[in-house]
Amino acid sequence: VKTKNHLEFFDDPGQLKIYLPKKLLECLPKCSSLPKERHRWNTNEEIAAYLITFEKHDEWLTTSPKTRPQNGSMILYNRKKVKYRKDGYCWKKRKDGKTTREDHMKLKVQGVEILVWQCLYGCYVHSSIIPTFHRRCYWLLQNPDIVLVHYLNVPAVDDSGKPCGPVLCSINTDRKEWAKWSKEELIGQLKPM
């Protein structure tokens, strides 16, 4: 115990010590397994629980990159060992047309940021083919090497509130990239989504 309000969390000697507020640890769900898939976005509390608990579960870490993970897939990587962003999907590009457009965000747990140096961080990308398909990556700023990656196709909703099928993106800059693909290449992108 660091103080009566903070707990020291680490597993192996020599590993990075993570200091977490006792209040935070009490609000996190207990998790004994990492789901292989989830067809809804995780809550910030669930994300924090997975990223903190992984140290007790080496089997949760995936040691090689997955190519086009299925819709709903949740994967935990060590970014120093796996190039997880090379997943085979076509993501929206920045205006320069060279790099992937990523949205970055600090997330709060129970309405409170986990101090500046212990913040939960998110990075979101959007498919350039189906605008409802996304990849979200999460990590603790205090331990950025461990990344939780979640792929999800969030169904679009029409004006009456009913789910509707995905529509191919019609933005010309993105379309140029995938419009030249063969039917098989395009199906290879769409099927796992």
TrEMBL record:
Gene Ontology cellular-component annotations: nucleus
Keywords on record: Nucleus, Transcription
InterPro entries on file: CG-1_dom
Compartment(s) of residence: Nucleus
Annotated ranges, domain CG-1: 30-160
UniProt cross-references to Pfam families, sorted A to Z: CG-1
Domain of life: Eukaryota
Annotated GO MF terms: double-stranded DNA binding; transcription coregulator activity
One BP term from GO: regulation of transcription by RNA polymerase II
Protein name stated in the entry: CG-1 domain-containing protein
Species name: Tetraodon nigroviridis (Spotted green pufferfish)
